[in-house]
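User: Write out your own:

AI:
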Amino acid sequence: MSSDITPPAYNTDSSPGRKHRDLPKFLDYDFSNLEFRIGSFYAFIFSRCKDANVTVVARSNYETVKAHGLKLNSIVHGDHIVRFDRVLSSPAKAGRTFDYVVCAHKAIDEDNSAGSLACVIDPQKITVVLIQNGIGIEEPFRQAFPPMTIISCVTWTGAKQIELGVVQHLERWEGLQIGLYSGSACDESRDRQSLDIFAALLQQGGTRYEVVPDIQQLRWKKIVSNAAWNPITTLTQMKTHAWLQSSPDALPLTRKLMTEVVTIAQKAGVDLDPNTPGLILEEMINNASVGSSMFNDLVAGKPMEVEPILGKPLRKARELGVDAPILETLYTLVTAVNIRSKQAVK
């Protein structure tokens, strides 16, 4: 998980719990394809729901999870070996559609990701749940499947695969903010029912969550943090405290960068507190120094989430006529580093 401010308090009791006569059928898509295994953690949460049948799509750990199950070590939830209803190596192996598809893979190529799920999606009844970083990640799914319900999520959960099929849940971070992604083809009543059912299943699974009326506000708030710490830690190969202490200019530059992102969000009609950069910086300074998922991906030779974290905010700035020179510089540099990294892997 990328470094961020401390998540807000969650009240799981505020959302409706209910019994369901027909068990929702879940597909947790690509839950093995994360440096920080968010998908694995939520696959565990859904497996605890007596009101859901859970199929998972695994890649790097497919053989291990299929044969032995997923092992989760958590100070919060205890140690578990999880057996899923089905373990697949690809969505194409499912041979059916699902009620909910949970996407927890990195938002590297959302156009192709949306298309690859066509085989498991009935747009008239499906709900796609996006547990991913960045802004603008929902639109490829809306364009590919206009009628379907989209639940967009901001996660504050930390989990890491320490060996194939073994995931460690980091105690400090657990929480999910969820809300509906709107659009012209939406059925408000159906979408609200899908959100209520999903919230009830999170509660049944025993995790912290919050239903929010404006999920895009929370996405932009997290981007203020991610757009700073991800590229800075990647380019400098320093953790946050080391960077902030590296020169008298480091803190002011970081604040200016965050302010650029806040300005873009506000011009886009997002109600974002202008004090957000100061609050994020204060939180970071007063807590442990961290790296970022982008830096971890670079070290591991994996593609980085450049577009949803940097590219899309920058394009929004250009569209709205907002000057964002620091964001533009970091995007240009990280794009080059990402290309070099991909070429090195080949």
